[in-house]
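To illustrate the input format used throughout this study, we show a single complete record. The first block contains the structure-token representation of the backbone; no residue identities are included at this stage. The design step must infer an amino acid for every position from geometry alone.
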């Protein structure tokens, strides 16, 4: 696919088929991940590619518990009361569907980063993992596979780390389900560029 077609049509696909993803396709996606940049080229990222059905089912249970906590947050609690068919309501319904079916995704990638001794995870730490996460999602899109980025597993991170044998000095920073989509790819609804990109100073539309 053309690069800009991939970028502009890669959207959160939360409704996924349980059909398996061929091994060569999955390896192609993961090879794209490790071509991403990282701070100091240290490549502290680690990826657990979960295909075992029992582990996927357990991740699904933990994720569903996390969703149960997230919907209590004011934004999501209010969004669930939006008029039927509104963009926000559709987003929440889509997220709820994922929460109910996460364990059915044929592949769940848990992205992790190894931390230096005494260093706590932060938004800066994420700068060394999220380019690789985006590469996974873009490569998946180019190959016709749906994905989305979520961090809801963090509500149950201790259980996730125990399930997958993740060491204490490694932080889980993203969970990415992969699967052939039930819906269609397409440009996602976004605010106009003039509202979010500024020229030389804050508030001056680009």
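Output of the design step:
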């Amino acid at each position: 696919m053309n690069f800009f077609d991939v970028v502009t049509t890669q959207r959160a696909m939360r409704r996924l088929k349980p059909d398996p993803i061929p091994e060569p396709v999955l390896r192609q996606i993961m090879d794209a991940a490790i071509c991403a940049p990282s701070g100091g080229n240290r490549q502290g990222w680690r990826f657990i590619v979960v295909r075992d059905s029992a582990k996927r089912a357990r991740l699904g249970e933990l994720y569903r518990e996390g969703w149960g906590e997230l919907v209590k947050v004011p934004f999501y609690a209010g969004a669930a009361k939006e008029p039927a068919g509104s963009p926000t309501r559709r987003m929440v319904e889509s997220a709820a569907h994922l929460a109910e079916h996460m364990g059915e995704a044929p592949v769940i990638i848990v992205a992790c980063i190894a931390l230096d001794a005494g260093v706590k995870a932060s938004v800066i730490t994420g700068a060394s993992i999220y380019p690789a996460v985006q590469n996974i999602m873009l490569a998946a899109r180019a190959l016709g596979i749906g994905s989305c980025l979520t961090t809801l597993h963090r509500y149950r991170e201790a259980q996730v780390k125990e399930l997958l044998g993740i060491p204490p000095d490694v932080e889980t920073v993203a969970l990415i389900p992969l699967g052939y989509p039930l819906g269609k790819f397409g440009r996602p609804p976004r605010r106009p560029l003039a509202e979010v990109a500024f020229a030389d100073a804050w508030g001056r539309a680009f």
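Structural context for interpreting the output: The chain has one domain: 3-196. The chain has a mean pLDDT of 92.
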